[in-house]
Design a protein that fits this description.
- The structure is a single chain.
- This protein is of the alpha/beta class.
- It folds into two domains: 113 residues, Leucine Dehydrogenase, chain A, domain 1 (Rossmann fold, 3-Layer(aba) Sandwich), CATH 3.40.50; 129 residues, 3-Layer(aba) Sandwich (Rossmann fold).
- It is globular.
- The relative contact order is 0.17.
């Protein structure tokens, strides 16, 4: 068996075509969506990721409102930038790139974001809405990576209803919200949440119909662990230095899992592009809701 490639780049490109049309329609109504990005420090991964987000915005026609602060920026200085974006009428939504420096309280910063401009879907109010709503229409921003995982599966006509989904990782950006999203009635999966404290990891991996591996543990899911026909989303990101001194991205899933899986996302090139395009989609959806409310 050769696994179907769940190509995030191709899926994101398809989504961008639709988003570009929607942004053009908004501009005809006098509305230009603006996405803010707040970057603190010089972490290479964060810089690269924010740069890619800005390129996505430019491609689709969204205004970029980038704010960059040094690693030494105080929490109060970061909160001042957040307050400016909260009040800025040109800013439809924005994100604070994580992780923040150790001297900054991440929870305090995220809670200061206007929930109506929470492009990442990580404000406690919006996460609480995800907890409280098992069904019905979603009218608030969803966390981008779990949303991207679901979109990638649906784009490739992979059924989720009645399937056992194993989410490996309990981080606030992926693991925890993914368990909530995949139990919603329109998705209707049975979700198992696993993490570093899970004692029977191999057993659970072998039971799963769909695996979302987001632990940041290189190669932890191996060919011998999974059942034939499994669908695997390799979301974990680790950076390793090669013998030549170059840095490469490594996922949580061993490459040879593709020999027995029915479908598998590459890493890089799988869920990463979906996360970025879902960020843009969240901003467009916020702009569309704002435009509808002012009519």
């Amino acid at each position: 068996m050769t696994a179907l490639k769940l190509d995030g780049r191709a899926t994101a490109a398809h989504m961008k075509e639709d988003l570009t049309k929607r942004v053009s329609k908004l501009k005809e109504q006098g509305v230009t969506p603006g996405l803010g990005t707040v970057l603190v420090g010089t972490d290479p991964g964060s810089q690269s990721y924010v740069g890619a987000k800005i390129r996505d915005m430019e491609e689709i026609g969204i205004t970029s409102l980038h704010r960059e602060l040094p690693e030494s920026a105080t929490q109060d200085e970061i909160l001042e930038v957040i307050e400016e974006l909260n009040k800025n009428p040109e800013c439809t939504g924005y994100i604070v790139q994580l992780p923040l420096p150790d001297h900054v309280d991440t929870d305090t910063v995220l809670e200061a974001i206007d929930p109506a401009k929470d492009a990442d879907g990580l404000h406690p109010l919006n996460l609480g809405r995800l907890v409280a709503s098992a069904g019905g229409e979603v009218t608030w921003p969803l966390p981008c990576t779990p949303k991207g995982c679901l979109t990638l599966l649906r784009h490739h006509d992979i059924e989720t209803k009645g399937k056992t989904v194993l989410v490996i990782g309990r981080g606030i950006t992926i693991g925890r919200p993914a368990t909530l999203l995949f139990t919603r009635r329109d998705v209707n999966s049975t979700v198992i949440a696993a993490h570093t404290g899970t004692s029977n990891m191999e057993e659970l991996i072998g039971q799963a119909d769909i695996i979302i591996a987001a632990a940041g543990n290189p190669g932890m899911v191996t060919k011998e662990m999974v059942k034939e026909g499994v669908v695997v989303l390799d979301v974990g990101v680790s950076r390793q230095t090669t013998d030549e001194g170059k840095t490469r991205i490594v996922g949580d899933v061993a490459k040879d899992v593709a020999d027995v899986a029915a479908a598998m996302s590459p890493n890089p090139g799988g869920v990463g592009p979906m996360t970025r395009v879902e960020l843009v989609a969240n901003v467009v959806e916020i702009a569309e809701q704002n435009a509808a409310n002012t009519q």
